[in-house]
Amino acid sequence: MSRRFTLMYIPDSGKKARRMLVSHRFLYSILAVVLLSGSLMGWVVVDYYKLQFDQQHFNQLLVENSEQRQQLKQLSRDLDGLHREMVVLSDADARMRGSIDPDNEDPANLPVAIGGAIDIRPEDMTGLQQQINSLRLAIDLRRESQEEVRDLLNDKHSLALATPTGWPTKGWLTSYFGVRPSPYTGERKMHEGLDIAANTGTLVTATADGIVVKATTESGFGKVVMIDHGYGYRTVFAHNSKILVKTGTRVKRGDKVSEVGNTGRSTGSHLHYEVRLNGVPVNPRKFL
Ligand SMILES: [Zn+2]
């Protein structure tokens, strides 16, 4: 037997009350329907808000994505600019090398240096990484090249300092480099330097940086000074009246070395000036 409830409806005023018989099963069905639709509603509401949130999050990601795309594009443009600058730098470097020593090869003269405008898509992270790597390599090579250029310049600078330049004293040329009759014997003999006539006591100065390797008196040259300049260069100053340096003295171009005189085999106050390259006397006029 099934149990039943009696539902009563009693209005306020004197109207007739109503009653209704309801079975248990019917009541449970109603309850089930109410619960089910309730939870369904709840689920729909939750899902809706979740969707809203997701949408918001998605929009935010979209914005971020577009920003990052822009940044990557900018990065790619910057890299491109750096590449161009590297090309300009390597160009300048090459020209500098050429001016110092035309035969010198540029170690950085590799294809990376002429990378230039490589069009990479912003989403192509590998491409960007490759660009960065190749730039790094180019920079390393450029640094190496710059160091070499600096060494070349230093060498060139040292060579310039070691090369005899200018007049060693104030005077006038009375005898040139080459074969001439000896003032003593009349025999034709090689004159291995220049004779510069000047008053006794006139200062004689070094024509290049170097070290004094001889400061002594000899029968022929009289009071003589020899300076070694390196790079195979040596200069000789003979017939001095006075020597102002000692063997081992380091001299710079323009430093006082001696005073003009008439010592040794000489026929008047003058400076006999020689320039030797690897032991062989060369014409000093080329260096005046
Ligand atoms: Zn002479």
In words, what does this structure look like?
The protein has 288 residues and is of the alpha+beta class. It has three domains: 4-63; 73-162; 172-287, Glucose Permease (Domain IIA). It contains two helices and 15 strands. Strands 3, 6, 8, 9, 10, 12, 14 and 15 form an eight-stranded antiparallel sheet that branches. The protein has a three-stranded antiparallel sheet with strand order 7-13-11, with no helix packed on it. A hairpin with a 2-residue loop joins strand 9 and strand 10 (233-240). The radius of gyration is 50 Å and the shape is rod-shaped. Mean pLDDT is 87; it is low at 110-117. The chain binds zinc ion (ZN).
Query: How many β-strand runs?
Result: 15
- Counted by DSSP, the helix tally is 2
Strand content bin: 25-35%
Instruction: Calculate the mean pLDDT score and round it.
Output: 87
N-to-C CA distance: 141 Å
CATH superfamily of the largest domain: Glucose Permease (Domain IIA)
Features:
2 helices; three-stranded antiparallel beta sheet; Glucose Permease (Domain IIA); alpha+beta; binds zinc ion; eight-stranded antiparallel beta sheet; single chain; 288 residues; 15 strands
In short, what is this structure?
Helices cover 40% and strands 26% of the residues. Strands 3, 6, 8, 9, 10, 12, 14 and 15 form an eight-stranded antiparallel β-sheet that branches. Strands 7-13-11 form a three-stranded antiparallel β-sheet, with no helix packed on it. A two-stranded antiparallel ribbon has the order 1-2. The protein has helices at 24-100, 125-162, and strands spanning 4-9, 18-23, 172-175, 178-181, 188-191, 194-197, 203-205, 210-218, 222-230, 233-240, 242-243, 250-251, 256-259, 270-277, 280-282.
